[in-house]
Design a protein that fits this description.
- The protein is of the alpha+beta class and 260 residues long.
- 36% of the residues lie in helices and 17% in strands.
- The strands form 3 sheets. Strands 7-6-8-10-9 form a 5-stranded mixed β-sheet, sandwiched between helices. Strands 3-4-5 form a 3-stranded antiparallel β-sheet, with helices on both faces. The protein has a two-stranded antiparallel ribbon with strand order 1-2.
- α1 runs antiparallel to α2 and α5 runs parallel beside α6.
- The longest helix is centred in the first third of the chain and has 28 residues.
- It is globular and about 50 Å long.
Length: 260
């Protein structure tokens, strides 16, 4: 368990680094040269923004917390990171803001920050989550949010078993969690391997901070220690409310098809 003072520094740094990363993405987009390359194939692409953002995040956090283990999506070296990519100072301004009195005894895995859709959302279990207006989905409606580009027979079978009123298909694990916490969807359902720990880590902290729950399709909690495998092999099931309702309706045939 981290001390409150240490975790506050980590969260403040994560927030500042996320803001820096968002600026990098906007700069790449406005310049027009996305620098797209294939990694493992035509459906596994990497952009210049992907590369620069990871270099910025890893180098910035490593400079402030040299003993921390940082695992990123891209296989990149941080040895040649330029100073302009380093976030070094804004977190000190954040730390000057008043800290909520209930900020005690928080574990590292219960905090996260995520820059998405032009804003930075952050949360700590025991304090709450910020950067958005918490809203619940319409009562009595079963609105499923799922993958936009990685659908399959198994994914669709799982969704159909939930008898949804509406299915929303969007990209990004963080974006899907936003659909939950802003009341646009009731459950995030993805019955397939493909999502990785770096996709769900920060969104999970934010969802937990407002009372939500996220597991794999079989109901297993995700672990984020440095030895854990990166793939969420048994998919994702997340809700802001009524997790048990959706978990109880996942067909056994779907669960048996996904191995943690």
């Amino acid at each position: 368990m981290a001390s409150p003072a240490l975790l506050m520094r980590v969260v403040a740094s994560a927030y500042a680094v996320a803001e820096k990363a968002a600026t990098i993405v906007r700069n790449v987009m406005s310049a027009g040269d996305l620098g797209i390359v294939e990694k493992a194939g035509p459906n596994d692409l990497q952009t210049k923004a992907d590369r620069l953002v990871q270099m910025s995040i890893c180098a910035s956090l490593a400079r402030k917390f040299p003993k921390v283990t940082i695992i990123g999506e891209e296989e990149l070296s941080t040895d040649d990171v330029t100073e302009e990519l380093i976030e070094d100072g804004h977190c000190e301004e954040i730390l000057k803001k008043p800290c909520p009195a209930q900020y005690t005894g928080i574990k590292e895995e219960e905090a996260g920050a995520d820059a998405v859709l032009g804003r930075t959302i952050w949360g700590v279990l025991g304090i709450g989550a910020f950067g958005f207006q918490l809203t619940e989905a319409p009562a009595g409606k079963h609105i499923i949010v799922t993958t936009r580009s990685h659908s399959s027979t198994l994914v669709n079978e799982c969704i159909s078993a939930l008898n949804p009123d509406t299915v929303i298909r969007v990209g990004g694990a963080g974006n899907k969690i936003i659909q939950l916490i802003e009341g646009k969807a009731s459950a995030y359902v993805f019955a397939s391997p493909g999502c990785k720990k770096w996709d769900t880590c920060a969104p999970e902290a934010i969802l937990h901070a407002v009372g939500g729950k996220i597991t794999d399709i079989r109901g297993n909690s995700f672990q984020y220690n440095k030895e854990v495998k990166h793939m969420n092999s048994a998919g994702v099931l997340a809700t802001l409310r009524n997790y048990d309702y959706y978990a109880s309706r996942i067909p056994n045939t779907v669960k048996q098809s996904l191995v943690p």
